[in-house]
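User: Can you predict the 3D structure for this chain?
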Amino acid sequence: MPPDPALKPHLITFPTTGESGTGYIAVAEAGASIPFTTQRSYWTYFTPESIVRGRHAHYRTEQVLVAVAGRIVVLTEMPNQELQTFVLEKPNVGVYIPPYCWHTMQYSHNAVQLVLASTLYEEADYIREYAEFKRL
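Assistant: Here is the predicted structure, written as structure tokens:
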């Protein structure tokens, strides 16, 4: 299925409650702040600053990436060659990654990335070769 041109990477600011004296809670809810039902959650941590992760796209999976600690620089490329850079450094802000979006991430030494995904893991959903992504 070809990519939906209406779906583009964009920032999501999660509703937050609290105050500096007692701390904050940010809430991610399917159908409200998250545009899909989450089927899988995972996190990355202790990634060396010199490592670039990601380097893939998905045929079906939608994701929201959140830097719950530290800073993550996310580079995205859509099939129409639209490039965007997102700097995640607030735990109440995430970036939406639609299907057919090539993305890479680079982390600060203390970064913890939470990923909310619309599908369970399936290797066949990954577009791992950049040439294949460009062909699509």
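Residues 77 and 83 are 5 Å apart (CA to CA). The chain has one domain: 10-135.
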